[in-house]
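Sequence, please.
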């Protein structure tokens, strides 16, 4: 009898965590590695938010809280969703988790029967398919082409829906591509969903405020109000508010589902850190004048990396509208040969070449179920990004066309 559950046989370790760990190991050996594999802002948590957490400690806010989160935080979330997204929820329709990731997992675990299907447009965040599998469901991966902006089309959605479909997973702005669905695009998807009332929508909006240029954020529950009762909207403070380590996310949706999520959370983590919850109140309801500053800096970094990598032999990338990732097409380097005589056959080969020969950690697109691409996080300093781009361009230039070259 095995000690480890058979459920884990189909679960892969996170490719983003794996590449970051490889980079850390090389750095520990004395190599100068720039890590562009982690989806984490390099900004410190804003002082007003950090101070709110410190004050919570001083005020003795260090005891157990309600599983769903403290009332003032759920009120702040309710008000935010009404004010910024036009969505009306009661606080009983809102739950707080240890990051948006836990809320997504709990939603799947609370709702999926064995074998029920979840449609996941790809490229997709590495954790979505494995969350579905752990919950007993079946991920249905729908390939979304670069020519379509890496976005799900109504035609592909229609073709993917079966009688066993339970959820459509949407993430906009997207990790890993930075794609942003317009309101019109969501309305077109909603037209399909209306014909299939058994399908629910999970909208992961964690990068909501990191949208650039003329693009505008939209979310399904407001773009299609008649689907409000079939949608759970997930968000959090990790990315926009530079609070990754505080672990606060939230979900708002049908009260039946929220209650079920709370049952699961009550038997796992109990609740999110009380200190983090009080800091999150300030992040959501307090001064957010730093957000436009963060966003402008991310946009500046995006423009730098796009311009530089489009000059790298064999690479090409479109301009992402949101988040802080670049999904670069590396078709042009496949088949080329390193100085050590190794043929670059896949995007994983190329990512390992950049790590080992150029000292730059990126994530292969295969980790996001899309090849041949690499994901580059531009949530790093201009100095690091400039150096990393120099190294990537040099590494691409050193690749030979064939073994005889």
């Amino acid at each position: 009898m095995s000690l480890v559950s058979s459920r884990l046989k189909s679960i892969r370790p996170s490719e983003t965590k794996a590449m970051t760990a490889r980079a850390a190991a090389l750095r520990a050996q004395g190599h100068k590695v720039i890590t562009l594999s982690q989806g984490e802002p390099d900004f410190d948590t804003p002082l007003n938010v950090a101070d709110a957490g410190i004050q919570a400690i001083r005020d003795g806010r260090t005891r157990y809280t309600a599983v769903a989160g403290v009332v003032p935080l759920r009120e702040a979330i309710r008000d935010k969703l009404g004010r910024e997204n036009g969505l009306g929820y009661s606080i009983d329709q809102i739950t707080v988790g240890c990051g948006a990731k836990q809320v997504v997992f709990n939603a799947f675990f609370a709702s999926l029967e064995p074998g029920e299907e979840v449609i996941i447009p790809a490229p997709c965040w590495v954790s979505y398919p494995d969350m579905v599998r752990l919950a007993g469901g079946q991920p249905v991966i729908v390939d979304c082409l670069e020519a379509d902006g890496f976005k799900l089309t109504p035609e592909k959605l229609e073709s993917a829906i079966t009688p066993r479909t339970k959820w459509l997973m949407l993430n906009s702005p997207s990790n890993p591509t930075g794609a942003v669905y317009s309101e019109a695009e969501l309305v077109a998807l909603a037209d399909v969903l209306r014909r299939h009332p058994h399908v629910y929508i999970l909208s992961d909006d964690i990068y909501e405020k990191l949208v650039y240029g003329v693009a505008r954020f939209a979310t399904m529950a407001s773009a299609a109000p008649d689907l409000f009762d079939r949608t759970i909207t997930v968000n959090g403070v990790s990315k926009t508010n530079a609070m990754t380590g505080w672990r606060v996310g939230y979900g708002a949706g049908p009260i039946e589902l929220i209650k079920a999520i709370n049952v699961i959370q009550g038997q796992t983590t109990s609740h999110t850190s009380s200190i983090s919850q009080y800091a999150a109140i300030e992040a959501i309801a307090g001064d957010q004048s730093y957000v436009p500053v963060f966003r402008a800096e991310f946009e500046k970094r995006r423009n730098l990396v796009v311009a530089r990598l489009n000059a790298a032999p064999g690479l090409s990338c479109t301009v992402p509208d949101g988040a802080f990732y670049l999904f670069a097409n590396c078709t042009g380097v496949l088949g080329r040969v390193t100085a050590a005589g190794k043929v670059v056959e896949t995007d994983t080969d190329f990512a390992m070449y950049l790590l080992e020969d150029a000292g730059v950690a990126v994530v292969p697109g295969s980790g996001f179920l899309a090849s041949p691409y690499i994901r580059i996080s531009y949530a790093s300093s201009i100095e690091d990004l400039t150096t990393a781009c120099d190294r990537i361009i040099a590494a691409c230039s050193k690749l030979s066309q064939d073994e005889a070259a």
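The mean pLDDT is 95.
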